[in-house]
Amino acid sequence: SLNPRLTVLESIVFGLKARGFAMSEGRTRAASMLRMVGLDPETFAQRYPHELSGGQRQRVNIARALTMGPRLVILDEAVSALDKSVEAQVLNLLRELKAKLELTYIFISHDLNVVQYVSDRVLVMYLGRPVEIGPVDAIYAAPKHPYTRALLASRPSHDPRRRVTVPPLSGDPPNPINPPSGCRFRTRCPFAEAVCAASEPSLLPRAPIGATRGHPVACHIHDAASGHSGAGRIAASGAQIGRSA
Ligand code: SF4
After folding, report:
1. How far is the CA of 194 from the centre of ligand 1 (A)?
2. Which of 8, 33, 88, 106 is the most exposed place for a label (fewest CB within 10 A)?
3. Which residue CA neighbors atom 1 of ligand 1 most closely?
4. Ligand 1 in reach of 143 Cβ (< 6 A)
């Protein structure tokens, strides 16, 4: 996302200039941002993107995003192109900046370990719909939705006792332009029943927008009134699907 014809400083100042900041102030802010992301402005300000490593480029991008003083930063696959050691450095930098600048992140990723490391709350999506939302510890320790459970089961494990040979999920995601009726996950869900094709499950229990507590899930098994054969047992016992149901 860095313009190859702009130096690091020009890239960072670009947004400030567009917002009407004087060049001198832009340069001062850009230099202080570079310092904040761990790049010495003396060394890096006049470099072009091709003279930087992947991790350094990502630090420049973070500096660009933060120069405008945002409260919310959307990070879309922010570390997926980095190798593991650089990924860890950038993640630690993001955590430091979050605390120092009191930021909120929306962190979008397919890497479940990274999500677990950076998140307070996690929202799991399938085919464009949220299927489960909750505190990171609750989602990872006791996932409710069959898709979340399959995702977590697909994580590689270092422990040979936890090695699995059966794929946690089979089939391909359906075409999002023409999704299945009812629950969008039903064509791949081992617990699908007629009710799953007939009606789309809602995120339950309902919570006000912006609520930071609770662990709602969109699955008929977790709705005692849905008519799914597993619903009564799950609702009554609080058990997890695939274990006791
Ligand atoms: S609503 Fe039905 S198909 Fe969808 S996840 Fe729940 S059990 Fe599976």
Report:
1. 10
2. 106
3. 219
4. no
Q: How confident is the model at residue 167 (pLDDT cuts 50, 70, 90)?
A: confident
Alpha helices by DSSP H, listed for 45-119, are 54-66, 84-101, 112-118
Structural domain of 156? 127-245
Nearest CA to ligand 1 atom 6: 219
Q: Which atom of ligand 1 is nearest to the CA of 222?
A: 6
For 148-175, the DSSP string reads HHHHHHTS--S-GGG---S-SS-S-PPP
Does residue 82 lie within any of the structural domains?
A: no
- Residue to substitute in 145, 151, 196, 222 for testing ligand 1 pocket (most ligand atoms within 8 angstroms of CB): 196
∠ at Cα 29 (24, 30), nearest 5°?
A: 95
51: Cβ–Cβ under 8 A, 6 or more apart, which residues? none
The predicted pLDDT at position 45 comes to 95
How many H helices and E strands in the chain?
Answer: 10, 4
Ligand 1: distance of its center to the CA of 68 in Å?
Answer: 43
Q: Is residue 191 part of a domain?
A: yes
Ligand 1 pocket member 231 (CB < 6 A): no
- 90 CB near ligand 1 (under 6 Å): no
Domain membership of residue 201 (yes or no) is yes
Can you give the pLDDT at residue 232?
67
Structural domain contains residue 113: no
Token pair in block for residue 215? 């662990």
The CATH number given to whatever domain includes residue 238 is 3.40.50.300
Mean of the pLDDT values across residues 102-115?
94
Hunting for tokens 């960072």 — which residue is that?
12
Domain count, the chain: 1
Q: How far apart are CA 57 and CA 151, in angstroms?
A: 30
